[in-house]
Amino acid sequence: MRRSLSTTVDRFDLAAPFVIARGSRTVSTVVVVTLASNGIVGRGECVPYGRYGETVDSVLAQVEQLRVTIEEGLDRAGLQELMPAGAARNALDCALWDFEAKRLGVSAATLAGLHRIGPVTTAYTLSLGSPDEMARAAEAAADRPLLKLKLGGEGDPARLRAVRRAAPDANLIVDANEAWSDKDLDRHFAACAEAGVLLVEQPLPAGRDITLARTTRPVPVCADESAHDRAGLAALRDRYEAINIKLDKTGGLTEALALAAEAERLGFGLMVGCMVASSLAMAPAMLLAPRARFVDLDGPLLLAQDRAHGLRYEGSVVHPPVPALWG
After folding, report:
1. Which residue from 255, 314, 323, 257 is spatially nearest to 291, judged by alpha carbons?
2. What is the rounded CA–CA span in Å between residue 109 and residue 116?
3. Contact assessment for residue 44 and residue 93, using Cβ atoms and an 8 Å cutoff
4. Can you give the residue range of the structural domain that contains 128?
5. pTM for the full model?
6. For the domain that residue 185 is a member of, what is the CATH number?
7. How far apart are CA 68 and CA 51, in angstroms?
8. Which of 1, 102, 129, 203 is the most exposed place for a label (fewest CB within 10 A)?
9. Are residues 256 and 291 in the same domain?
10. How many distinct structural domains can be found in the chain?
11. Which one is catalytic: 102, 150, 183, 249?
12. Which among 105, 140, 174 is the end of a domain?
């Protein structure tokens, strides 16, 4: 079926500065791909990520290179062959899922072989800050069942103690965003164990994480920047107990579902994560949530205002998308 393709760049102000070990931001900039034909419209959203050398312009250029092929009817399988994994392929892939679901009059979950998807509990992210700043943020969010702490290396044990005092009943997971070093690994793991942390995400830089294989890990460790595709999974088994699947890394829902299946086969636990983006980016990832031990789809909660028909959040419980949004 022939379709028209269009792209837009949307910007969402954040409710508060979002700070991680690599920097901070106050705006989320996303690229939206729209496919349309005979009144059927499919959309997908991605976040160009500088950590992987992506920019808004580079993502738009990648999409434009395939414009003719896409408009002539390129399907999801063909897309995997013609475009590398990354944000651009994610937006296109998710738009194709949405378009196909609406053309067939079924849900995207049904297309993926799922009987249904229901509400899930998402983590709520606390930005990196001083121990006092993070304690205040934790106290304000203490009624949420799962908090995700952004850590930054030096001073992390103090941050952990401060947050635990401020939110004594919350479950905690942490994300170091590659900021820890080999020499501090044991000390940071000990602080996580003392605070009752359930999972440590990407403590060491990708490509320099071999130390994890030689370290006693008192808390399970999850690969994020180290885990992109199925090809590299087997080499991570001695370093990580889980992987974080993000659609902007895998290049869309199609590969994300395949990656999840292979990770499960190899014995990894699953986390489904996100970039800071609108509900349109979260909606496809909801199809992975039933398989995940941890769900981190709080992007819209960090925005000053979500897009129309956004996901419904009741505290930390997020509900599946309505068709007017996606799928």
Report:
1. 257
2. 6
3. yes
4. 120-318
5. 0.95
6. 3.20.20.120
7. 29
8. 1
9. yes
10. 2
11. 150
12. 105
Decide if 246 is catalytic. Answer: yes
Question: Same domain, yes or no, for 150 and 276?
Answer: yes
End-to-end CA distance of the chain: 18
Can you give the CATH number for the domain in which 35 is found?
3.30.390.10
Exactly one of 102, 148, 183, 246 is catalytic; name it.
Answer: 246
> Each residue's pLDDT tens digit in the chain (327 positions)?
789 999 999 999 999 999 998 889 999 999 999 999 999 999 999 999 988 899 999 999 999 999 999 999 999 999 999 999 999 999 999 999 999 999 999 999 999 999 889 999 999 999 999 999 999 999 999 999 999 999 999 999 999 999 999 999 999 999 999 999 999 999 999 999 999 999 999 999 999 999 999 999 999 999 999 998 898 899 999 999 999 999 999 999 999 999 999 999 999 999 999 999 999 999 999 999 999 999 999 999 999 999 999 999 999 999 999 999 999
Residues 199 and 233 in one domain: yes
Claim to verify: residue 70 and residue 160 sit in the same structural domain:
no
Instruction: Mark whether 150 is an active-site residue.
Output: yes
Q: Let me know if residue 323 belongs to a domain.
A: no
Angle (deg, nearest 10), helices 156-166 and 185-194: 10
Residue 113 within any structural domain of the chain: no
Question: Of the residues 71, 105, 139, which one is the last residue of a structural domain?
Answer: 105
Question: Residue 17 CB: number of other CB atoms within 10 A?
Answer: 11
